[in-house]
Each structure stands twice: as structure tokens, then as C-alpha cells.
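Obj: model holo form, ligand = iron/sulfur cluster.
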Amino acid sequence: MSDASSSRYSYFPGCSLTSSAGEYDASFRLVAKELGIGLDEIPDWNCCGASPAPHHWGGNLGVLLPARNLHIAGYGHEAMVAPCAGCYNRHKNAQHELSGSEEIREQATRVLREPVRYEIEILNLVELFDREVTPEALAKRAQGRLAGLNFATYYGCLLTRPAKIMNFDNARNPVSMKPLLMATGANADHFPFKSECCGSYMGLAHKEIVLRASRRIIDVADGLGFDAIVTACPLCHQNLDLRQGQINKAFGTNIEMPILYFSQVLGLALGLNADDLGIDSHIVSARKLLAKIEQGAAERTARAADASGRGGASQAVCAAGEA
Amino acid sequence: MAIRVSSTVPGGADVVADIERRSGERVSACYQCGRCTSTCTGAFAFDYPPHRIMRMLQLGQVDEVLNSRTAQICYDCMTCSTRCPMNIDVANVIEHAKMIADERGIEGDEKEIRLFRLAFLKNVRRHGRLHEARLLTWINFRSFRPFNDLSLVPLILRRKKIHIVPPRIKNRQEVHRIFREINGGDK
Ligand code: SF4
Ligand code: SF4
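Output (holo C-alpha cells):
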């Protein structure tokens, strides 16, 4: 684990994490702090352009917007972390284009008025934690806190695709969240819909696409008895959580599937406060899941007490029986 | 049922060659297995499913492809690309068709999604970051479907999920320069 003061990482929050996905930002910062991972927010960062920039303005807008962030981040840091899967994807794509074309580099240099720096390593949040904390170290600190829970790991599209540019995990059967989730004491059984699309940003123009696509995901997770779906993408979160009521209404279902961010689950495993992690800011309540965690903790304490004072405990039971 | 006999338009082959060159994908390698279509979550809303788009390109029917609802709606989730046995990045092919349609000023019928994408970028041009509240109100107003997602508004507000005050970056000039560098900044 790294030293908290070293701040080797440049942090790109992106637009979602500073508004609708505030709990993703909060939980990420808290867990990073707890694990001693130093973060410096990129000063004066701008929007990466998201899905519309690369193909709907013409030219290289989708490269030049992220290029400005890479340029600022590259000053004095060895890597940049972008927890939003969309921002991560856009910056990696932009870096790929920059490294492949002298012409684009010149264009970026023209607007930045300095030779563009674009070579900083770009990490997503799963990758960062995977690098900074071993499952053994996490298991030691988590002490089985999340035992009894079973998480559906959901990766969606943007963390791994296109595979030749993202170069992260496996685009068809990603597994990178699993080791750390297992280290919390929980299970992360195979979730067959882990790399299906949730309907992306179609919620406004073609809501029916999102409702159908997201329904399949929560429906399968529910049918397989998972306690929650774990994601690392604010857009997936929005479709699966915010629209879960619309999905239930549209399909006459009654699913109540909590959707948690990967950082929130790690935070719970580390014993951080659920309110601080923003668990309650979701639309679908995770109260049942929190109750399970508490119940597990109570049972462990009871077992520990039982083991340390077996005689005393059995006497108490006898006394209770007599009364 | 009407049979659409469509043009193998003059110049069609050029456009396909252009898509192949710019995307680096081999459209000709597609053998119509249909796996791309079977994984696509949006195909039910398209006019042509992805494997048909591939076939139409092979036949040089570029007008149909460039004007298709598929080219406008496809949201580049790339699920199709991960399933193609010929290793064709199908999404990348469709994205390039989309770009060429855009360059040719083809607007198509999918006004709302077009509006959303442009509104998003204009919002970013203005503030340097996305102002979600303003984007949503603007879109609802412009598409003449006020409060499309009315039921979500109280949820969003109660959970403090949105900012009313626009976020603004300091060096907006630099962001404006980026937009100006492309198309003179206008669209
Ligand atoms: S990228 Fe487009 S065509 Fe391919 S699966 Fe996604 S929506 Fe369908
Ligand atoms: S999966 Fe590939 S080979 Fe099969 S129809 Fe689609 S593009 Fe063609």
C-alpha cells in the first residue's frame, strides 16, 4: 500500500461524479483515503465529451477535449484514475488516437499552446484498487464483514471495449472485480449478464431500449438470488437504479435490486459508515443488505463471545431456562 | 409485402472503401452469421439490424445505410463487436457510417437523439463541463415533450442528484479554442 502523502495519482472525477453520481465520488475518495492512496484532482479539468463528441461534431472533438485533461494530469503524476467508465473509455481512446497521429498531436498542441503531454497511464477504478491493494491485505482488514452476501458483478460496455484499445480485463467475460469482492468475505458468483449493455444514453430519446435492456440485467440478477449488482459506471447505475421503478411499471414486475458502486462495497467491507458512502442516496434501498451485514456482525460477536467464555454462556442459558 | 429493390448506387463502392480505410475493418469478411444482431439490445428499434447493415455495405447500398435509423440510433455499446467470429468491430463500422452521414449533412428522422447529442456538446462548449439540469430542461423544451421523465424529477431532487448552479471551469477560452479548431466551433 502506498503512502498517503505521495499522491502519485491524478484524479479525474468527470461530470457525473460531480453531480448525479456524487456518492461514487464520495465513496471513492473515502476508500482511497482509508487505503492510503493519495489523489490529486486534476485542476480545472473539462468534460471528456462523452459519447456524443467523437462522432457528432465532426473532426477530432472527441480527442481534443480529453487531450486537455491528459495534458494537465501528465504534469507531475505517473498515472491518472478515472472512476467513470465513460470518462475512462474516452480518455483511453483519445490517447490511442494521439499516439497514432502526428496530425492530431499538432492539432492538440495548437489549441493547448504547448507541446501536448498525453502519455500518462490511465486507470479505471477497479484497476487502481487492484494495483494498490492485494486481496490478502483487504481480507485482513475486512475480517469477513460482508460474508453471506452474493454480488452480481456488472461491467457493462465501456470498461473493456473496444478490447484492443482498453486493454483491460476480458471484453466478453470480465473478472477483475471478483478477487477484491471475494476478499470482503462475500461471494461473487458468475453473473451471465455481466457484459451486456444497459441501453446506454438512450433514456431520453428511446426509453424503451433502456427499459428492455436494463430489465434483462436486473431480472436475471434477481432470479439468481443476488443481493446487489455492483457496477463501476454512473450511466449503468442510473439506468439500473433510477429507472428501476419505470422498469417494474413497464413490465409488471416487482424487483427490488440494489445497485452499488464498487467503491461503496469496498467501503462497507472496510467498516466505513454507510451514510458517508452514500448508500442511501440510491433510489432502490439497500437497507436489507445493510441489515444482513449487521446481523452477520452480531452473529460473529456472539460466536466470539461464545468461544471465549463457553462455560459462562451455557450457565446463562440454563438460568434462562429455569426462569 | 413490398420488396425494396434498392440502388447499388454509383460511388457506393467508394464509400464502403472509405469506411473500410477509416475504420480499419474488413466489411467484406462478414459471412452473415447474425451473431452481432443476436446480441444487440437496440436492434428491435432499428430499421436494419447490424448484420443487414454489413450485407448492405457489401452490396454497395450506401444510401440506405447512411440514411438508416440504425446509423442514427446505434449507441456504440460494442456488444456486437465482442461476438463477431470474424473479429469485425461491427460497432466501429456503424460509427464510421454515422460519421460519414454527419459529414454529408444527412439529418435523418431521429430528431430527438440528434437533438440530445448536439445539446450535450453545446452545453459543454458553454461551461467546459456538463450542466445536467440545464441540458435536461432544454431538451424537454425543445423536443416539445415537456417532462418526458416527470416521474423521476422528485426522486432526483430528493436525493440531491443534480446541481442547479452551472459548474464552470476557469479556462473556458481553451475549451472554446478546442471547439473553434473544429468546424469553426459551430454546428
Ligand atoms: S454497437 Fe450498436 S449495433 Fe452493436 S450491439 Fe450496440 S447498439 Fe447494437
Ligand atoms: S457477427 Fe460478424 S460475421 Fe456475423 S453477421 Fe455480424 S458482422 Fe457478420
